[in-house]
């Protein structure tokens, strides 16, 4: 504008000046503006030209939205930062422009905290390939529980309870992932090409148990797919996998003591066939005792 002109401004700390920051008007002292080492001190200590209009307002070509917060920080040495992430980012931009290092650092710390607080407590990766699954399992120090769920893998019609049991498996997976989110890595596979509903349990990068929840049954000379919900066994395997939290490997005596089915050497778990043989042996023994 024709009335605008540049001048060097220098006065006593108690002298008041009028500021027009992006159309927002402020009234403060030179002492406040020159209180710390920043761009404003340079502007109002006579070392840098400032632009004024015909009414004596000093023009600063910045958004005035957060300039009041900057003045309060210069006055008191501290200020309440905005609660929203976006406004804190806006204040950070202004603090950087005016070279106010302490306020810049305070904004950065607040933003980092907001990002940490915004992180979900429980995260369940949805894997997109077998390679990604292996990378997740091998790169974590936590035990891993994987649920493969793919209703479309079915070749036959489902039994009447299958859909309900399928949902129960998903609900249990969600509950377990919330309960043990800090101790176990839960991953979900919805693109598996063979199984319909299958739980896998990994310790130190190796599979140690598997619970398959589907089977083929016959009814009226037709095959049907049956989805089961072996809740107790899934809980058992999930609790057992916690033994693999230690990097030194699980205590084999502890595995056998805490497993209702018993453990068979190394990291492998008891198979269904071995469980059936054990059960048949107990039945034969009971029958012989009754006959005697």
From TrEMBL:
PANTHER family: BTB/POZ DOMAIN-CONTAINING ADAPTER FOR CUL3-MEDIATED RHOA DEGRADATION PROTEIN FAMILY MEMBER, RE57120P. The gene is LOC106127167. It comes from the Eukaryota. Pfam families: BTB_2. Residues 259-292 are annotated as: Disordered. This is BTB/POZ domain-containing adapter for CUL3-mediated RhoA degradation protein 3. It comes from Papilio xuthus (Asian swallowtail butterfly). InterPro entries: BACURD1-3, BTB/POZ_dom, SKP1/BTB/POZ_sf, T1-type_BTB. Residues 15-83 form the BTB domain. One of its GO terms (biological process) is protein homooligomerization.
């Amino acid at each position: 504008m024709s009335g605008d002109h540049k001048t060097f401004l220098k006065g006593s700390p108690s002298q008041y000046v009028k500021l027009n920051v992006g159309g927002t008007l402020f009234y403060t002292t030179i002492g406040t503006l020159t209180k710390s080492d920043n761009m404003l001190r340079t502007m109002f200590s006579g070392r840098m030209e400032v632009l004024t209009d015909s009414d004596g307002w000093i023009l600063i070509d910045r958004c005035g939205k957060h300039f009041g917060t900057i003045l309060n920080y210069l006055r008191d040495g501290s200020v309440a930062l905005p609660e929203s992430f976006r406004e804190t980012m806006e204040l950070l931009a202004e603090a950087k422009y005016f070279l106010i290092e302490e306020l810049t650092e305070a904004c950065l710390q607040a933003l980092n905290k907001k990002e940490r607080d915004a992180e979900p407590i429980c995260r369940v990766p949805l894997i997109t390939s077998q390679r990604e699954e292996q990378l997740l399992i091998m790169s974590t120090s936590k035990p891993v529980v994987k649920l493969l769920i793919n209703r479309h893998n079915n070749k036959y019609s489902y039994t009447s309870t299958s859909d309900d049991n399928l949902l129960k498996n998903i609900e249990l997976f969600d509950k377990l992932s919330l309960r043990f989110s800090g101790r176990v890595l839960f991953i979900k596979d919805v693109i598996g090409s063979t199984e319909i509903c299958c739980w896998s349990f990994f310790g130190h990068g190796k599979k140690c148990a598997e619970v398959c929840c589907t089977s083929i049954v016959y009814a009226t000379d037709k095959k049907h797919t049956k989805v089961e919900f072996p809740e107790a066994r899934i809980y058992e395997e999930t609790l057992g996998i916690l033994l693999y939290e230690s990097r030194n490997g699980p205590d084999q005596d502890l595995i056998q003591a805490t497993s209702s089915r018993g453990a068979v050497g190394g990291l492998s778990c008891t198979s269904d066939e071995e469980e059936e043989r054990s059960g048949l042996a107990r039945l034969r023994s009971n029958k012989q005792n009754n006959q005697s």
